[in-house]
Write a structure and sequence with these properties.
Layout (H helix, E strand, L loop, with lengths): L6 E6 L3 H12 L1 H8 L3 E7 L16 E2 L2 H6 L5 E4 L7 H10 L3 E4 L2 H18 L3 E2 L11 H7 L5 E7 L2 H13 L3 H10 L8 H4 L2 H15 L9 E2 L7 H10 L1 E12 L2 E12 L11 E8 L3 E8 L3 H21 L14 E2 L6 E11 L4 H11 L4 E10 L4 E8 L2 E2 H12 L4 E10 L4
Parallel strand pairs: 1-2, 1-4, 2-3, 4-5, 5-6, 8-10, 10-13, 10-18
Antiparallel strand pairs: 7-9, 7-11, 9-10, 11-12, 14-16, 14-17, 14-18, 15-16
Bound molecules: NADP nicotinamide-adenine-dinucleotide phosphate (NAP).
């Protein structure tokens, strides 16, 4: 006779995402049971504050403030971690795996910092550790990289994987808004947190890139190894000049294989207007993967929000539950044996956009061209913007041909020392091949 006993779920966290997961587990219980062949039962939900008002669909009796007790319960087979933050989430995931519980998590910080170690532990314990919701919210990415694209030699990933910054950049581009104004709008709409540092400084995107790159390139990558620059230095004038030159400005997360090394970076980029990623606006995410067999594929959708994220988490829960119901062992394809090294940012070769404020006098361009030329950086184009009579300055927008980052940094230092240069307003990398 087949086993019809319940599969118990312990939910760690009932905030934006956890509430939606709990609602669906409770309200769609019959449908989920049909899909799995056994009922799924929510055994308990960890929160910090039991007295807070919660979704009325969720019985208060399910709430607990004791994480270890919930994880250790005999009738909990799957632990779903949606509390966020590194600790205690990491310790609880470890504890659950060590007690032979399957784990589903949405936690990019934990997976980008301790992912390989936790995956190894899950393998040893012969349980599942699934984390589809940790990158790109509802967009399927981890699954396709694990399975559907596994036969490919991936050469690059180009991604817009932070909705908050993409929303801010869209406002700056479409309305000429300043960074501060666009950030305030994002905060008013709930797209940016009161402390937006993690998003606007690129840390969130770096975590997500580390998770994707580990899978795509079969190498152990942590968030700390990703070079990153945020978006706070961008000004409205950069968007105007970029548009005149035929580019959008996007915060891209890029991973590219360069022989036996990986280039990993998150920073603002000029992207040709006709490219798909240049057209991804607002809080949407898009991830382009290039593989030797599949060519370029682009995944696009809602990278955050309660429902899209719950969609990914519930998908993982169903996968685990179906495995339990059928007695299948979890499939582990997380081979991280390629061991690619990380290329220092100084070794990067790409094109650059330089915005330089100079004194409005003869011979200025020659002096700048000499600095660049002496370092082997050739100029693709220069536009001189209108001079400001009051300050007797003009603005030069220089596009270089591909050049090495180390030399561009030297050139910027040397330019700053020139008597004719008032300010190097911005340096932005150009990504032609996205
Ligand atoms: N929000 C999104 O759109 C989104 C998208 C993709 C991935 N994620 C990831 O999903 C996870 C959850 O995000 P969220 O937006 O749902 O967070 P959230 O709204 O802040 O909810 C966190 C929940 O965890 C509980 N919690 C946190 N620390 C706790 C502790 N030490 N002890 C007990 N309970 C604790 C909180 O309890 P109280 O309710 O009592 O405060 C709350 O219920 C994060 O890893 C996040 O990165 C979120």
């Amino acid at each position: 006779m087949s086993d019809t006993s319940e599969i118990g779920i312990g939910l760690l966290g009932m905030g934006v995402v956890g509430s939606e997961v709990a609602r669906n587990l409770l309200l769609k219980a019959d449908r989920l049971a049909q899909q799995v062949g056994r009922p799924l039962r929510l055994r308990g939900i960890l929160v910090r504050d039991k007295s807070r008002r919660r979704d009325p669909a969720v019985p208060p009796a399910l709430l607990t403030t004791d994480p270890e007790d919930l994880v250790a319960r005999q009738d909990v087979h799957v632990v779903v971690e949606v509390m966020g933050g590194l600790r205690p989430a990491y310790d609880l995931i470890r504890s659950a795996l060590s007690q032979d519980k399957h784990v589903v998590t949405a936690n990019k910080e934990v997976m980008a910092t301790h992912g390989p170690e936790l995956v190894r532990l899950a393998e040893e314990q012969e349980v599942s550790l699934l984390y589809e919701a940790s990158v790109g919210g509802g967009i399927p990415l981890i699954g396709p990289l694990h399975k559907d694209l596994l036969a490919n030699e991936v050469s690059s990933l180009h991604a817009i994987i932070n909705g908050t910054t993409n929303y801010i950049l869209t406002r700056m581009s479409q309305e000429g808004a300043s960074f501060q104004t666009a950030l305030r709008q994002a905060q008013e709409l709930g797209y940016a947190e009161a402390n937006p540092a993690n998003d606007v400084e690129g840390a969130d995107a770096a975590y997500k890139l580390a998770i994707l790159a580990s899978l795509a390139f079969h190498s152990q990558v942590t968030g700390a190894q990703v070079y990153r620059e945020g978006i706070a230095r961008l000004s409205a004038v950069d968007f105007r000049y970029a548009q005149e030159l035929g580019y959008a400005i996007k915060l891209l997360a890029i991973a590219r294989r360069e022989d036996t090394a990986l280039s990993l970076r998150v920073h603002p980029c000029l992207v040709p207007e006709e490219h798909l990623l240049a057209k991804v606006d607002g809080v949407f995410n898009a991830i382009e993967v290039e593989g030797d067999l599949v060519g370029k594929v682009v995944f696009h959708g809602q990278g955050a929000g309660a429902k899209p994220t719950a969609s990914a988490i519930l998908g993982d829960i169903l996968e685990v539950a179906c495995n339990i119901a059928s007695g299948r062992k979890p499939a582990h394809t997380g081979n991280l044996k390629d061991g690619l090294s990380i290329l220092p940012i100084e070794e990067l070769v790409t094109q650059y956009y330089l915005r330089v404020t100079v004194s409005d006098s003869a011979g200025v361009l020659a002096k700048i061209a000499t600095v660049l030329g002496d370092l082997g950086i050739s100029i693709a184009s220069v536009i001189q913007k209108a001079a400001d009579a009051a300050s007797q300055t003009a603005e030069l927008v220089i596009m270089t041909h591909p050049a090495k980052e180390a030399y561009v940094r030297q050139a910027v230092q040397q330019m700053k020392a020139l008597d004719v240069v008032r300010e190097v307003g911005n340096v932005i990398r150009v990504e032609q091949q996205a």
